[in-house]
Amino acid sequence: MAQQDDLTEFSSEDTYRLLVEGVTDYAIYMLNPDGRVANWNRGAQRAKGYVEREVIGKHFSMFYTERDRIEGLPQRGLDTALREGRFEAQGWRVRKDGSLFWAHVVIDPIYRKDGKLLGYAKITRDCTEQRRIEEARRDTENRFRLLVEGITDYAIYMLTPDGTVANWNAGAQRAKGYVESEIVGKHFSLFYADEDRAAGLPRKNLDIALREGKFEAEGWRFRKDGSRFWAHVVIDPIYRASGELLGFAKITRDRTEQLESREKIIYLARHDAMTGLPNRLQFLERLDEAMATLRHGEQEIAVISIDLDGFKEINDAFGHAVGDQVLCELARRMKALSGEGELVARLGGDEFVAFKVFRQERALADFITRLYHALTTVLRLTGTDIAPGASLGVAMFPGDAEDRAQLLNNADLAMYRAKKNLGEKICFYEANMDEASRARRTMARDIWAALEHGQFFLNYQIQRAVDSAEITGYEVLLRWKHPVHGMVSPAVFIPIAEECGAIGAIGDWVLEHACREAARWGLQPRVAVNLSAMQLSNAALVEKVRSVLASSGLPASRLELEVTETAIIADRDRALHLLQQLKAMGVTIAMDDFGSGYSSLETLRSFPFDKIKLDRSFISELETSKQAKAFVRAILALGHSLNVSVLAEGVETEAQRAILQQEGCQEGQGFLFGRPATLESLAGQGVIEAPDLAARSA
């Protein structure tokens, strides 16, 4: 009976009233039929700020904004509740203090038992915080969507589980050419090549993404206009919270430019930048491959070493731009003639190399003929015609060499032989070439040893006045007494010294010893020392001469430096600048071997030489050749007009001396006036005095 009483108590109207009034999270109150507030709970007071006495009897429209009231929103809510049995909505409501809150509102009509409208039950919940959170979420989603849609460097879009395009961003439009309306709803396989679609590649890529969690690769994709681009593609599967597959996120980036840059780098690593021919790296790779796959007994490989003739002179005469044109045109010709089993490459400068795999010798002969014709046919360039030339050296594998290094070396040896042979510009390797090369390498080592062990010594050849016995100078001539081979001719060891780089050290040794001996022996009026092209290219030459003069005590006026135009022309401006500095020190400057090689009036005009040395080739024919005599007369006249002394080299007969005297030549040098000899020998002949005697007579 007590339990029944408790239930009755909880079901009473007072209990319901207390329950409603005690709720604080919801504003729950009654409206009478015309919308006036009939009661008020704690939740209503908390949400809207009014206490019960302030709001009972007031129309509930007071909680609406002024705009909502003008638009009749409160009454429409009641009308909707009557018509549909309930009104439910969200909107802004106003608190007592004028602040707004976002309200979720439910209005239910309440009827008496007789069906007459009693009023309305109104429930309001403050959802401002929930709205803020939801708006923040939507803002984040919108910003991300706008970010994705606005990205132009990446194509970013969604695929449905079957691969249909679901959305499209600006980057996708830029990369693939389709606008959103053209592509959404289409299968993404339309971006693939026909053969890729036939192979089922699009579906396979999605399956990989599902199986491994991501698909990533690069490949060709196609735009709307049919052009292709190299794409870096990433596909990620996207799942709902429940684990159900929502679709795929696909990101594509156009990497065509990077691919082209990568391919260009790879190309440049294996090709000559100027001519486009294969470079040394590619040539060696291809040669190794050809040698490894050669069918011995059936095939041979010929390597042809190629060096252009006179290319430096082309650069000097026409400029490097024309020189580059020559290289490019010759490269184009050789590339055009190359066929299967043939390759031409540029090693650098004016050096090229080729190889041919062949069975019959006539095939090799044909290839070499084609090469030589391409290298020697006149080039018709803008503004000038140039007749190029080349020296070719040929070596065979396996006949001439056992490996690649020996094969290339032997081809070079043959090419050097062709370079020296004016009549034969295509040389085949012979075993004795290698022997000669070894001999040159041995001599190069001996030259350095000769410097170290004092095997070099100096001879002096007297220069005299043509019309008297007066000594006008002494030319210093280098000699080498080899401990094994005896006297070695300068014509033999000087070129090798130039090749091995010893010529600079030898030149310094000669200058130092000549100045020291000239000062010690009191040689008058001067001593003449030859300068090499290497010395003339060395900016330290002036300081070297100044230092040697100071240490030896020889006055600058007693030193004459002889240079050939061949030495000057290597770097004409620098050489002439150095000579001007030497002349300013008081050193005499002579042009040696005038009339041979590259001698020209322009060089005489550019620099005030003190002396011209007329080449011996004209003197040897002076008695028999009218042309030689006319040339000597012209040079002597030139010397007189420039106020430059002229010395004739190679004077060997009295008749030659007489003609030179008749023509007005001042000085001569040759066997007629004295053979080259050491200073001790000259002293023994009574030509000069020994140092102690010279000192006593002074």
Automatic annotation (TrEMBL):
InterPro entries: Biofilm_reg_signaling, EAL_dom, EAL_sf, GGDEF_dom, Nucleotide_cyclase, PAC, PAS, PAS-assoc_C. Residues 12-85, 140-213 form the PAS domain. Residues 440-690 form the EAL domain. Residues 299-431 form the GGDEF domain. Residues 87-139, 215-267 form the PAC domain. It holds the Pfam family EAL. PROSITE patterns: EAL (PS50883), GGDEF (PS50887), PAC (PS50113), PAS (PS50112). This is GGDEF domain-containing protein. The lineage of its organism: Bacteria, Pseudomonadati, Pseudomonadota, Betaproteobacteria, Burkholderiales.
